[in-house]
Amino acid sequence: MLGFFDQLVIAPVVLPAFLAPLIVLWMRFDRTAQRVFSIVGMLALVAISLTLMVRASSGVPEVYRLGAWEAPFGIVLVLDQLSALMLVLTSVLGLAIALYAIGSGWDKRGWHFHSLLQFQMMGINGAFLTGDAFNLFVFFEVLLIASYGLMIHAGGRDRLKAGVQYVVYNLAGSTLFLFALGTIYATTGTLNMADLAQKVAQMPVGEAALLRVGAALMILVFAVKGAIVPFQFWLPGTYSNAPGPVAALFAIMTKVGIYAIIRIYTLVFTPDSAVGSLAHDVLLPAAALTLIIGMVGIFGARDLGRLVAFSVIGSVGTMLLAFAQFTPEGTAAGLYYMVHSTLVAAALFLVADMVRERRAIGLKLIPQPVIAQNGLLAAMFFMAAIGMAGMPPLSGFLGKLMILHATFGQWWIWAAILITSLIAIVGFSRAGSTVFWKCYATPDSKDETPPRLGVEDASSPALAFVATGGLLAGLVAWTVFAGPATTYVQGMSSQLYNRENYISAVMDGAYQRAEEAAEAGAHPHGDDHDVQDSAYEPDHTVIDGH
Questions:
Q1: How far apart are the C-alpha atoms of 294 and 224, rounded to whole Å?
Q2: Peptide bond preceding 16 in cis form (omega within 30 of 0)
Q3: pLDDT digit string, tens, across residues 295-346
Q4: Alpha helices, DSSP H, located in 189-243
Q5: C-alpha dist (Å) from residue 458 to 373, 436, 443, 452, 453
Q6: Is pLDDT of 540 > 50?
Q7: What pLDDT is recorded for position 521?
Q8: pLDDT in tens, 378-434
C-alpha cells in the first residue's frame, strides 16, 4: 500500500486533469469561481512540485506503477531530479500565467481559458514524468490539443491563420512520432524506456539498421516540437500571434521537445549503443544553425512579438549546443541555461503583450506617442533583454559562460555564441530604443489614434505587472543562487548519465516479483507462461551490482 507522499508522484497529472473538467462543467458561467479554482490549483501544483523536488534530491529515482502493473507491461511514472526540476519550472510558470491572464483580462476574451490551461499543465507534467515512450506521445497530444484551443483564444483572422499552421505542422510531427514508435517497437518489442535501454544496449550493431531509422525519426519529431532547424518555421508566426499569456506559456513548450531529447538520448540511444553518435552528429550542426537563425531574426525583426519569438529560437540553439555534447558538463550547462531561457522568454512575451495593449499600432517597431507606464515597462524590457542576450550580470551571462567552458576547444561554437550574442544585443537595443525611448509626447489632438481596448478591459493591471515581475524576480534568484543551482544541475547531470540507477529503479521490482512467483510455482500474469517469464527474465549483465 502506497503512502500519501508516494501518491504525490502522480498528483501533478491528476490534479489538473480533475480541475479542468470541473471548471468546464460546474463553473462554466461563473468566471470568479474559475479564477479562484485555477489559482488554487496552480498554488497546489507549486507546493506539490517543490515537495517532489525535495524527494528527488536523494538521487534515487522514484517509480509510480499505475494499477500496480510491473514494468514493462504497465504504465510507469518516474520521478528523478530532472523531471522534478521541470515540474517546478512548469508550475511556477503556470501560476504566473494564470495571474497575468486574470490581471490583464485575457481570460474574459474567449471561452474556457482556465480549463484549457489546466489541461495544458496536465499534458506538460505528464510528459516530464512518464517512463514510457508511447505515453510520451499521449501526453504530447494532450498538451497539443489544449494548446490549439489556447492559441486561437479570443479569435481574430491572423490568430486563426497562425493556429491552423500550428495545428497542421504539429499533426505532421505527431504522425511522424507514431511511425518512429512503430519502428522501434517492431525492432525491440517494448516502449518502456528502461526496458528499451536494456534491449538497445544488447543489440548487435549489425542488426540495428531499423533501430537507427527509429532513432533518426525520433530526432526529427523532437526537432519539430523544439523548433530546431530546419523545423523552426512554425514558431515565429505562432508565438507572435498567440495571446500574450499563451505565448508566455508556450515558452515551456519548446523545452518539452528538448527534455525528450535529453531523456531518450542519454537513457536509450546512447553513443555507446548500436545507434552510435547519431544524435551528436545531427544535433550539433542543427543547434548552430538554430542559434544563428534565431539571433539574426532578432536583428531583422520589425515587430516586437516576432523579435521575442526569434529570441526563443536562438535560446533553443544555445542550449542545444551544450546538450549535443552528450557529456555531464555540457548537460549541466544546458540545464542551467534552460531554466533561465524559460523564465526570460515568458517575461518578454508578457512585457510585449502589455506594450501591445497600450500602443495604437500594436508591436510594430515604429515610434509612437508615450504609452501608459512607459518607464516601468521599459525597465522590465531592459532587464529581460539583457538576460536573453546573455549580458552580465544576469543568469543568461552565467549560463553562456558555462556552455563556453563545456565546449572548450571547439572554436566555432565559441565564435557562434559570442557573435550571435552581439547581434542579439544590437537587435534588442534597436527595438527597445524605438518603442520606449523614441516615443514622443503629443498635445491633445483630434487626429490622435485612440489607445487599444486591452488596458480598459483589464481586471487588475497591477496584477499583470506583479506576475511579470515575479518571473523577473525568479530570473534574479536564479542568478543570485547560481552557486547552489550549478551544484544541483551538476548532480542532476550525473544522475542522467548513471542510467543504471534509472533502469534498476523501474525494472528491479518486476524481476524480484517474477523470481518470487517462480519460486512459489506460480506465474505472475495468467497462463501465458513463456511470454511472461521470458519478458521478466532479468538481464544480470546490466543490473548486477546495482
A1: 15
A2: no
A3: 999 998 999 999 999 999 999 999 999 999 999 999 999 999 999 999 999 9
A4: 193-202, 209-226, 234-241
A5: 14, 22, 26, 11, 9
A6: no
A7: 55
A8: 999 999 999 999 999 999 999 999 999 999 999 999 999 999 999 999 999 999 999
Which pTM was predicted? 0.90
Cis preceding linkage at 230, omega within 30 = yes
What sign has the CA pseudo-torsion 346, 350, 355, 360? positive
Rounded CA-CA distance 198/207 in Å is 15
Cα–chain-centroid distance for residue 284?
Answer: 20
DSSP 78-121: EE-HHHHHHHHHHHHHHHHHHHHHHHHTGGGSSS-HHHHHHHHH
Q: What share of the chain is helix, strand, coil (3-state, %, to 5)?
A: 75, 5, 20
Angstrom distance (rounded) from CA 138 to CA 118: 16
C-alpha cell at 15: 490534479
Other C-beta atoms within 10 Å of 487: how many?
12
Query: Do 221 and 184 touch, CB atoms closer than 8 A?
Result: no
Question: Exposed, middle or buried: residue 340 (CB in 10 Å: 0-12, 13-18, 19+)?
Answer: buried
Cross-strand partners of 132: 192
CA-wise closest residue to 353 among 252, 251, 492:
251
pLDDT band, residue 524 (cuts 50/70/90): very low
How much is the average pLDDT of 59-80? Answer: 89
With a cut of 70, say whether residue 478 has pLDDT above it: yes
Residue type, 257: G
Locate 409 and state its grid cell: 576547444
Beta bridge partners of 77: 64, 130
Set of cell numbers at residue 375: 518607464
